[in-house]
Design brief:
Number of strands of chain B: 25
Order of helices and strands of chain A: HHEHHEEEEEHHHHHHH
Shape of chain A: globular
Oligomer: heterodimer
Number of domains of chain B: 3
Number of strands of chain A: 6
Distance between the termini of chain B: 100 Å
Shape of chain B: elongated
Helix content of chain A: 40-55%
Structural class of chain B: alpha+beta
Distance between the termini of chain A: 104 Å
Mean pLDDT of chain B: 92
Strand order of the largest sheet of chain B: 4-3-2-1-9-8-7-6-5
Number of helices of chain A: 11
């Protein structure tokens, strides 16, 4: 009996010894304070309304170098460019998908983070530069934003919107397998390590530099690096190139080159329609007309609720 | 009974385990609270000085430093200004349309997280992927009201910041820096110094904002020029003596330590040798036409008049050198040096042209002997054309010899021996044959 008391006493001691170590209800993680007087407060609030709440996407423009590949030297984006690109992204990208594919499409499949970087990732040894990349269907990083001239539609297409359509198309084919037959159209000419040597260096026109790739049946030299890139380059270039540019490419590609490119486009068009109810031709038309009515004052796109038909210089198409 | 024994042992063990974590805390608050306090203090320190901070910015550990002035404001905005030959072409530049932040990474970090024309020009990869290899994120090593010590996160150069005097205008600050640069570093590549302490010396060569030991695989010491002094990226430690800040002595004859030790950078070359070293480093010596002896002035005026008579103009004369690297059959690197005199003039019919004449440059006991050899070949034959304009080969060559050739004693025209950018060449035979030459790019 004595031993039983002793045992009970010991057990009681156990709890007594622990008693004074009560958990502190305060979290060790301190919530960031929301300051309303910061230099970027107004812009941050605007982003919160139009990107975070509307599309469930975080628009990251303040660079954290730790989030970047340490093998490259990169710099942040200019604040003014972050503002411009945000407005244009709504007008030339988000709102287009809303209209063509449906309101929920981008909240479902769209990237959850868009990160802007001022410079590109340059690999001087290989003579290449990375203008953007997608990570796990969640994050799209857009680069070389500081070099963009906002009144140069072709440049913006190349550096921003083509890259966005390109990276987003990667997300789409990562969600639903793309047609395997695509890989057998031009299987012999994919070159992961030598595609960059296919550019025509004799011309300064960025688009015409791709001519050698056209003849092989690719819309761009980068598209000839591997099949996934070829698939998304076909989509992205079809959306962002004008009808005249696309026709020029087909005319310059030769019979075989044009045939391969057209087959690839048809396959991508059918796959998008079947898997996502996404009309690629409607997307192309909408982007082209919006590019044509690109306001120089980007607040205008907000005031007009992205409807170019209300812009003062709008002329209805016949 | 057996069960009771087992329970007894377990309970006894629990008592001691239960008590064992009652260690006395070394700190009054949690790690996150301490970090937050540190970051808040650093923020307060950064925004405190009314006229901002003088940042001694080194892009990396192998590059010269340049000052950047910074004014941090509480709302996260930062104004940065600089004036340097690398990123602003020696013009004052400021940008205040960007942001800064303090954040916790693997330590407290000061970051410039949106693009600033002044700060990020050092980190922009440009077309080669590297640019100037500079940082814009810094680990905070120490932050107090008198000094902030940082270390570049990627390229690891030490960067120090000091509060700016409240009444010193930023543009005026850079005017003072540039005046100091002219006294110490401008066009001074190749100049040599003896780093000296108590009779011991280490020869060093100045090159692009860095002192380099003249030893195979010698250490390099980057520094930044500030108003009235230079500061090295990290303390220079030799013979057990450490010093980081140096200033010109009262005669501008050497750079002496400001850190209470008797070390100094003493110019190691004679003026003749300095003239020679600068020529080796692509620096040209331009004739100063406003300051010359009477005999030299007469010759110069004759030359100018002869050109004017033919509707031409004499523009400038330069002492120059071409240094070519060749590899010998044994595989050794050889330097072929060719001295020449370059005369820039307005050709009566063909615009601005340059005529060149091969020269020899020899040094003997601090006396320079500069001799004419022959016209230096060029595609347009300008050397012959100019001689013809000057009245024929004999007359033309005589003018060149009278003006520029002979044996000369050399003296510094600025009084500075640390960076003798302006020199007097006085003929050993006639005090009136005297020219002044200024180092130029």
């Amino acid at each position: 009996m004595k031993k039983t008391y002793l045992l009970l006493a010991l057990i009681a001691l156990c709890f007594a010894s622990c008693k004074k170590d009560e958990l502190d209800s305060k979290s060790i993680f301190v919530d960031p304070e929301v300051k309303t007087d910061t230099y970027t407060y107004e812009f941050d609030q605007w982003l919160n309304t139009y990107f975070t709440k509307r599309y469930n996407v975080e628009y990251i423009y303040k660079l954290d170098d730790a989030a970047m590949d340490p093998n490259y030297n990169v710099v942040p984006v200019r604040l003014g460019m972050a503002d411009t690109v945000a407005h244009l992204s709504l007008y030339l990208w988000y709102d287009v998908y809303d209209k063509i594919v449906g309101k929920d499409f981008l909240t479902t499949y769209g990237p959850k983070m868009i990160q802007l970087v001022g410079s590109s990732m340059i690999n001087a040894a290989q003579g290449t530069e990375k203008l953007g990349y997608a990570e796990g269907g969640i994050k799209i990083t857009l680069m070389k934003i500081n070099a963009m001239k906002t009144n140069d539609t072709e440049m913006m297409n190349e550096y921003i919107f083509k890259t966005m359509h390109h990276e987003f198309s990667h997300i789409l084919h990562q969600q639903k397998t793309y047609p395997k037959d695509f890989e057998s159209i031009t299987p012999q000419d994919y070159d992961p390590s030598g595609w960059q040597y296919r550019y025509d260096e004799t011309t300064k026109d960025m688009w015409l530099r791709e001519k050698p790739a056209w003849k092989l049946g690719f819309v761009t030299c980068y598209g000839s690096s591997e099949t996934h890139e070829d698939f998304v380059e076909t989509i992205a270039n079809y959306i962002t190139k004008s009808d005249a540019q696309w026709q020029l490419m087909l005319d310059s590609a030769g019979v075989d080159g044009a045939k391969y490119i057209t087959t690839k486009l048809t396959m991508a068009r059918e796959w998008l329609a079947e898997k996502y109810n996404y009309d690629l031709d409607a997307m192309h038309r909408e982007v082209q007309i919006r590019q044509k009515y690109l306001p120089s004052d980007y607040d205008q796109v907000m005031q007009c609720n992205f409807d170019y038909r209300t812009y003062p210089d709008y002329k209805p198409e016949n | 009974m057996k069960t009771k024994h087992i329970l007894f042992v377990i309970a006894a063990a629990l008592v001691f385990i239960g008590c064992s974590r009652d260690e006395e805390s070394l700190f009054d608050s949690s790690a996150s609270e301490r970090l937050k306090t540190y970051l808040t203090n650093a923020e307060n320190t950064l925004v405190a000085p009314v006229n901002g901070w003088e940042m001694l910015y080194f892009p990396n550990t192998e590059s010269a430093g340049y000052p950047v002035l910074l004014k941090f404001t509480e709302n996260g905005q930062v104004k940065a200004a600089s004036c340097n030959p690398q990123t602003t072409r020696n013009k004052y530049k400021e940008d205040m349309k960007s942001t800064w932040a303090i954040k916790a990474d693997y330590g407290p970090i000061l970051t410039f997280d949106t693009y600033n024309d002044v700060m990020h020009a050092w980190a922009d990869p440009q077309t080669d992927g590297d640019g100037f290899l500079g940082d814009y994120e810094f680990l905070i090593l120490e932050a107090n009201e008198k000094q902030i010590r940082l270390k570049g996160k990627k390229h690891e150069a030490y960067v120090e910041m000091y509060p700016m005097p409240a009444d010193l205008d930023w543009e005026e600050y850079f005017k003072q820096v540039n005046a100091e640069r002219d006294k110490i570093v401008t066009r001074n590549n190749g100049n040599q110094f003896d780093y000296s302490y108590n009779g011991q010396t280490q020869r060093m060569t100045y090159q692009n904002g860095i002192m380099i030991e003249n030893v195979t695989e010698g250490l390099i010491y980057p520094f930044v020029v500030r108003p009235n002094c230079i500061t090295f990226e990290r303390p220079l430690i030799r013979w057990g003596v450490s010093s980081q800040n140096f200033t010109l002595d009262e005669n501008n004859a050497k750079l002496i330590s400001m850190d209470g030790v008797e070390v100094a950078f003493v110019p190691a070359l004679t003026l003749v040798e300095t003239l020679d070293a600068k020529l080796d480093n692509n620096i040209r010596w331009k004739l100063d036409t406003k300051d010359m002896g009477s005999e030299s002035k007469t010759t110069y005026d004759q030359m100018a008049a002869a050109l004017k008579q033919q509707n031409g103009t004499l523009r400038a004369l330069y002492m120059q050198r071409e240094v070519k690297q060749t590899i010998s059959t044994e595989g050794d690197t050889l330097l072929n040096k060719q001295d020449y005199l370059c005369i820039e003039f307005n050709h009566p019919k063909r615009g601005v042209k340059q005529a060149r004449y091969e020269m020899t440059y020899t040094m003997d006991n601090e006396v320079l002997t500069y001799q004419y050899v022959q016209p230096y070949p060029d595609e347009e034959n300008m050397s012959i054309a100019l001689l013809s304009i000057l009245g024929g080969e004999t007359k033309g060559v005589a003018m060149i010899k009278d003006l520029m050739c002979g044996k000369f004693n050399i003296t510094s025209a600025t009084g500075s021996l640390v960076n003798p950018q302006q020199l007097y060449l006085t003929s050993t035979t006639s005090l009136n044959k005297k020219i002044k030459i200024n180092a130029t790019d």
